[in-house]
Amino acid sequence: MFSGFMVNAWIVATMVAVVAGIVGFFTVLRGSAFVAHAVPQAGFAGAAGASLIGVSTLAGLGTFAVISALSIGFLGKRGRHDAVTALALVFMLGLGALFLSWSEEYASAIYALLFGEVLGVSANQVLATAVLGVVCIAAVVILYRPLLLTSVVPEVAEARGVRAHRMEMCFLVVVALVTTMSVPVVGALLMFSLMVGAPGAARSFAAKPLSALSLSVGISVTVVWIAIAASYETDWPVGFFVGVLGAVFFIAGRGWVAWRRSGAGRVDSAGHLATRPVQLASATGMSGEPT
Amino acid sequence: MTTVGAILNGIFEPGFFTSGPVRVALVVGGAVSLVSAVVGVFTVVRGQSFAGHSLGDLGTTGGSGAFLVGANPLWGFVTFAIIGAGAMELFGARRPRGRDMATGIVLGAGLGIAALFLYLGTTESNTTGATITILFGSIFVIHASMIPVFALLSGLALAIVGLLYRPLLLSAVSQDIASARGVPVRAVGILYLLAMAVAVSLSCVTIGAILSTAVLIGPAAAALRMTKRPGLAIAWAAVIGLAVTWLGILLAYDSYYWPPAGRGWPVSFFVVALILVVYLLADLASREKARRAGAQGVASRKFPTGTAGRTQPSLPPVLGAE
After folding, report:
1. How many Å apart are CA A119 and CA B91, to the nearest integer?
2. Is B31-320 assigned to CATH 3.30.1540.20?
3. What is the mean pLDDT of residues A181-193?
4. Residue pLDDT, tens place only, A84-107
5. Residue A172's domain spans which residues?
6. Percent of residues in chain A assigned helix, strand, coil, to nearest 5
7. How many CB atoms are closer than 10 A to CB B284?
8. CB contact under 8 A, A83 and B132
9. Which CATH number characterizes residue A195's domain?
10. Do A86 and B110 touch (CB under 8 A)?
11. CB proximity B119 to A under 8 Å
12. Yes or no, beta carbons of B105 and A197 under 8 Å apart
C-alpha cells in the first residue's frame, strides 16, 4: 500500500486534502458551496477542450476554472448569485459535452476527469499540485483577516473599508486555483465533497475560527487517508469513500451539537460560527458592538 | 414559393418533422422544459438553485443505481431525488447558509454513491457508454411508452406549485411575515422541495443532468430579469424554456453534417448556449431600463453583493400591494 506508485498518490492526496480543508472552511463560511461545485465542473470542460486541441490538460482546466469563477463573480454582482452560478455551470458543462462530442476520447477519459485517478499520479503532477497548493495557502494567509470579516460579519467589514466584492473575486480565483490543482488528481466531484464535508463537520466541533480551520484540515486529511486505504483494499472508487465519510463526519458533528445542547442544557456552548459574531469579532481584532 | 421552400429546407433539414425520435423529443422535451421553467421561477425566487441542481445530480445517482439493478431508470431518478430532498430538509437550518451547506453535504454523499454505482455498473456489464448516457442524457432515445407516466408526474409537480402559489412566494420574500400570517413555512418548503424533486428527476431522465439544471434555472432567471411580477415571470419563463428547447433540438438536428466531427453537435450545448444568450440579453435590457429609470431604480434593483447565501429575493410588487 505504501510502495511504488502509491507513494505519489499518498503525497498528492494529502496536499489536496490540506488545501481543501483550508479553502473549504471559507467556502462553507461564505455559503459558496455551489460555486465550489460549479467551478471544478467548468474546469472539466476546459480539460476536455484542451485534450481536443492537444494542449496541456492542466492549462485548459485552469483557464476555464478562472474564467468561470470570474464570470460568476461579475454577473453575480447584480442578479441572483446562485442562479448565475447555475447558468455558468450548465454553460460550461454544455461546452464540455460539445468538446467531448468532437473528440475521439470517450467514456474512460470523462470518468477519470469527473471521478479522478488518484492511484495513477505522475511525479510531474506531484510538483504541479505542490506549487499550486502553496500559492493557494499563501493567498488565504494573506487575505485571512479581510476574508474572515467579509464572510462572517459583512456589515462590519464594509464599515472598516473592506471591499466586499473585490474580496469575493479574490476568493473565487482561489477556488479556481484549488480546482486546477486538484481536479486532475482527485476529480471534479470528489474535490467538492472534500471542500464541503470536512469544514462543515469542523464547524460543529469548534467555534473559534482558527481551531475550526485546523480541525477542518485534520478531518479532511483523515477522510482522504481512510478513503485511499479503503479504496486500495476494496478496489471501489475513492470518491465513494470521500463522499460518504464527509457526510458521516458532518452527521457526527450535528450529533455532537445536539448532544451538547441537550446534555449540558447550555445552548450557547454548542455554537455555530455564523451565529456567534461576538466571538469572531474579538478573534478578528474587533471590539465594540457586534451587529 | 420555391425560394420560400428552399429557405425552409435550409432551416429545417429534410426529415425534421417526419422523424419519429425528433417528434418524441419535441413533445417530451417541450413538456419537460415547460414544467421545469414554471417550477424554476419559484426556485430562483426562493434562492434554491443549488438545491435544484443537486436534486438532478442525486437523481443521476438513482439512475445509475437503477441501471445497476436493471430497474426502470425513471423510478431510480425519482426515488433518489425525493430521498435527497428529504435529507436536505433534515440537515438544513433555517438560515440560507446552513441550507447551502446541507445541500452540499447531501450532494457530496450522493456523488460518492454515484461513483460507486457507475463503477460497479461499468465493471460488471462493461458498457462504459452508460456513464455518458446517464450523466449527459439523450433526448433522442426516449420511449414513447413512457409519455403517460411523464404526463402524470409533470401534472403532480405543477399541481403542488399551483396550490402553493401564494404561500410559496410569501415565504420566499420573508419567512417571518409568512409565519406571522399563519403560513406553515416548513411544510410549504418541504412540499416545494418535493415538487422540485419530481420536476427535476423528470427532466434529468429525459434530457440529462446538464439540461435539467439549464431549463430549471435559465428561463426563470432570464424572466425574472425582465419582470418582477411573479405571474408574468412564469409566463415568460415558460415561453423562453419552450423556445430554447425546440430551437436547440432543431439546431442539433441541423448540425448533423457540421464540422468537425460530422456526427451532430449535442442538444445540450445548443440549449445552454441559447439560454445564456437570452439571460445576457435580459440582463442587459434590465440594466438599460434601470439606468433610464434613474438612481432610485438602480437602488431598488441592487441586490446585496457578497455571498450567495446572503442574497435576498426582491419583493414581488404583487405581494407588496396585497
Report:
1. 33
2. no
3. 78
4. 888 888 888 888 888 877 776 555
5. 5-283
6. 85, 0, 15
7. 11
8. no
9. 1.10.3470.10
10. no
11. yes
12. yes
